[in-house]
Design brief:
- The chain has a five-stranded mixed β-sheet with strand order 2-4-7-6-5, with helices on both faces.
- It folds into four domains: about 5-150, Orthogonal Bundle (DNA polymerase, domain 1); about 160-245, Beta Polymerase, domain 2, CATH 3.30.460.10; about 250-325, DNA polymerase, thumb domain (Beta Polymerase, domain 3), CATH 3.30.210.10; about 335-460, Alpha-Beta Barrel (TIM Barrel), CATH 3.20.20.140.
- By secondary structure, it is of the alpha/beta class.
- The protein has helices spanning about 5-20, 25-40, 45-55, 65-75, 80-85, 90-95, 105-115, 120-125, 135-155, 160-175, 185-190, 210-215, 250-260, 265-275, 295-305, 320-325, 355-365, 385-400, 425-430, 445-460; strands spanning about 160, 180-185, 195, 200-205, 220-225, 230-235, 240-245, 280, 285, 290-295, 340, 370, 405-415, 435-440.
């Protein structure tokens, strides 16, 4: 199982535990889920190399949690989660993803209205049944319907951070198929969009049928939507649709350009080609019937009189004119990052100590890292008050005195009160290197009141980042 799937199980357990008013454990499982999801190695690999002992060494993972991870890795199931589901058979992850619907609300909705899925919830809300439940009311019902409408309009898109590793894993598996000569990721994944609706892969192979058989038989595939000689579509366990096309080597660059998109960029390229007397499609760039470019993207852009345009810029937002003029902006790559100004530690709701965070940042090649733990209004995170912040500042001073190669900045993620004031006094804020301010409560204020609240917070002379 992938880390994201292991984390999903732990989040389900956290929700079920919260339903039953179990103290402390829900938060522990949430923190464990975050640790699992963000761990820099597959936990299956960690377990293979070091067993349960290695799992216990992961920050936030105790003995019983390590045992559950072992069970999940070995069997694909967790007995405790199955027991909870047998008692409360609901789609807990999807329901609690709806704004305004927490685990306890799911319990009430199931027990009183038989709600098990998002579809059940929508039907109950549209029928006006939710408003009559304890602790709900008409306003809650309206909020649920708005949240459901938002989910429907945004579609089943997944964050790039979740999708990219999975798509790269599939591309890597296909590259190992004996007859495959080239594999590339295309589509919005290649353009590095924040959320992904589906994924596209291209391949050049001597035996397309062998590639298609390997593709539809990959472990993450749960459903084959279509399988042909040169194109197949599958659904993964995560819900993501992935399409694979096998194309001739002489058309690979043209196909990669076409299926990378965006649609608007492609239209602009085709119009430019027509002006130059060419025809551009996924098979190549043609002058009459003769293909004059197509093996690589670079040769297509060059034939069109353009500098090569990185996929991240292909949105028809001036990049073609810039490529013609030689003024394309330089992309900011991961290795350009100099520091991190948003981190939490085990002083509040983080998993690691200040020193561990600093050493990890140093290993990544960063020059500085700001420690920005939450402040006191977020009681559930053990947020810092003025005294705790000053104690933390002293620890950071001591760490900076002995840890070379990186600077640890004193900071805080300060809560914005309902009236726009901050929940830490100005004297303490003035002693910090960096102050972030954030809204963590009263999300449903009228627009004018919320705007005034934010503006007041931004006018605090010590606020650096919103």
């Amino acid at each position: 199982m992938r880390n994201v799937e292991l984390a999903r199980c732990f989040r389900d357990l956290a929700a079920y535990l919260e339903m039953e008013d179990v103290p402390f454990k829900p938060r522990a499982y949430e923190k464990a889920a975050l640790a699992i999801e963000s761990y820099d190695r597959p936990l299956e690999e960690v377990y293979r190399q070091g067993g349960v002992k290695a799992l216990r060494a992961i920050p936030g993972i105790g003995a019983s949690m390590a045992d559950k991870l072992e069970e999940l890795i070995k069997t694909g199931k967790c007995a405790l989660r199955e027991q909870y589901y047998a008692r409360m058979p609901v789609d807990i992850a999807t329901l609690t993803a709806i704004e305004g619907v927490g685990p306890k609300a799911v319990k009430v909705l199931h027990e009183k209205l038989g709600v098990r899925t998002v579809e059940d919830l929508e039907a109950a809300a549209r029928a006006g049944k939710v408003r009559s439940l304890p602790h709900f009311g008409e306003r809650s019902e309206e909020k649920i319907l708005k949240a459901l409408a938002f989910v429907q309009t945004s579609g089943a898109r997944q964050p790039l951070a979740v999708t990219l590793p999975l798509v790269e894993q599939i591309a890597g598996a296909l590259a190992r198929v004996p007859s495959v000569e080239q594999v590339a990721i295309a589509g919005s994944v290649r353009r590095r969009k924040e959320t992904i609706g589906d994924a596209d892969l291209l391949a050049v192979a001597r035996k397309p049928d062998a590639v298609m058989r390997a593709f539809v038989g990959l472990p993450p595939v749960t459903r084959v939507l279509g399988q042909g000689d040169t194109k197949s579509s599958v659904k993964l366990a995560s819900g993501l649709q992935v399409d694979l096309r096998v194309v001739p080597a002489e058309s690979f660059g043209a196909a990669l350009c076409y299926f990378t998109g965006s649609k608007a960029h492609n239209v602009a390229l085709r119009q430019l080609a027509i002006k130059r007397g060419y025809k551009l499609n996924e098979y190549g760039l043609f002058r009459g019937e003769r293909r004059i470019a197509g093996r690589t993207e670079e040769e297509i852009y060059a034939r069109l009189g353009l500098a090569y345009i990185p996929p991240e810029l292909r949105e028809d937002q001036g990049e073609i004119d810039a490529a013609r003029a030689g003024t394309l902006p330089r992309l900011i790559e991961a290795d350009a990052l100099r520091g991190d100004l948003q981190t939490q530690t085990d002083w509040t709701d983080g998993a690691d100590s200040i020193e561990e965070m600093a050493r990890a940042a140093k290993t990544l090649g960063l020059e500085y890292v700001a420690i920005t733990d939450h402040t006191r209004s977020l009681a559930m995170t053990r947020g810092s008050d003025e005294a705790k912040l000053r104690k933390q500042m002293l620890e950071i001073d001591r760490l900076n005195a002995r840890l070379g190669g990186i600077r640890v900045l004193k900071g805080a993620e300060v809560n914005i009160n309902k009236d726009g004031t901050l929940d830490i006094d100005d004297e303490t804020l003035a002693a910090l290197d960096v102050v972030g301010v954030a809204v963590h409560s009263y999300f449903n204020l009228p627009r004018a009141e919320m705007t005034a609240r934010i503006i007041r917070a931004m006018r605090n002379p010590h606020a650096d980042i919103l």
